[in-house]
Structure formats: structure tokens, C-alpha cells
Specification:
It contains four helices and seven strands, in the order αβααββββββα. Strand 6 and strand 7 form a beta hairpin. A seven-stranded antiparallel sheet has the order 1-7-6-5-4-3-2.
């Protein structure tokens, strides 16, 4: 009887482990910092949160409906929910098709108290550590486009 209960407990633990891995697939969180030189925070904020600003560097078309944003590129679109934001500070989105509710992508403006320099901090999640390099390249390209738009090279 003891041996049967022991096997049953192991099967339950294996099931729970598979369930957790399926629903909360581990993703790799990464952060990238970009020097935005002396760009005024209100100007930078318009490009990070406003649909018209996002369309200049992030997506071909951005449609906002309340807390729902639809980002469209040449042949695809993706919906995101606005998770949180602080005007002039940060904006955090969650892709609606991502079943892991703990993932997000965030665009945060930081200002050095010592120098007054502005930094854009991007936080995102990659499907695996191998995908992190590819995602970093995507962000590098997008932020290069943002810097071009606002004259910050």
C-alpha cells in the first residue's frame, strides 16, 4: 500500500510540474539601456505612449481603444494591453496572445540626478536565452529609428 501511494504522489508531482511549465513557461527577462542625450522628457514621452509617436518608429500603424493597443506591421498585427503607466515615466504593455501573464515589455525614461542625462530603459522577455540576442537586435534597430525621428544620434 505504501509503495502505491508513493507512486501516486510522484505522478501528481510530475503532473503539477508539467502544468506549471505549460502555463507559466519560463521566459528570459532582459533589460537594455539607451542614451537619449538631452532629449526633453515630454518629447520622448510622446514617442513612447502616443499612437502617432509609436507609428514613427515602433509599428506601421497603432490603434488605441482604451487600454487596448493594436500594433500593425506590413503583414501582421498584434494586440497588447496597457498594464500600467506613469506619464513622462514609463509605459508597460502585455501581449494579449502571451499566456504568461507575468511577461510584459516596458519603456521607461530615467533621468540622472547628477548629469540630467536621459536614458530609455527597455525591459522585455525572450522565449529562451538564445532568443535574447535576436530580441536585443530588434530593439536596437527600433531605438535607432526612434533616435533618428527625434534627432538624437
Amino acid at each position: 500500500m505504501f509503495f502505491g501511494n508513493f507512486i501516486c504522489m510522484i505522478q501528481i508531482k510530475v503532473f503539477i510540474s508539467h502544468f506549471i511549465n505549460f502555463w507559466f513557461m519560463a521566459k528570459t527577462k532582459f533589460t537594455i539601456e539607451y542614451d537619449m542625450q538631452g532629449v526633453p522628457v515630454p518629447l520622448l514621452w510622446q514617442y513612447l505612449f502616443m499612437p502617432q509617436g509609436l507609428e514613427l518608429w515602433f509599428a506601421d500603424e497603432v490603434v488605441q481603444n482604451g487600454k487596448s493597443f493594436t500594433f500593425s506591421w506590413e503583414d501582421s498585427s498584434q494586440e497588447a494591453s496597457l498594464v500600467s503607466m506613469r506619464t513622462g515615466g514609463y509605459v508597460r504593455f502585455h501581449w494579449k496572445d502571451d499566456s504568461n501573464r507575468r511577461t510584459f515589455f516596458e519603456l521607461r525614461i530615467t533621468v540622472s540626478e547628477l548629469t540630467g542625462n536621459r536614458t530609455l530603459v527597455v525591459t522585455d522577455f525572450a522565449d529562451s536565452p538564445d532568443d535574447e540576442a535576436e530580441m536585443t537586435n530588434v530593439w536596437n534597430h527600433a531605438i535607432d529609428e526612434l533616435k533618428r525621428c527625434i534627432g538624437c544620434n
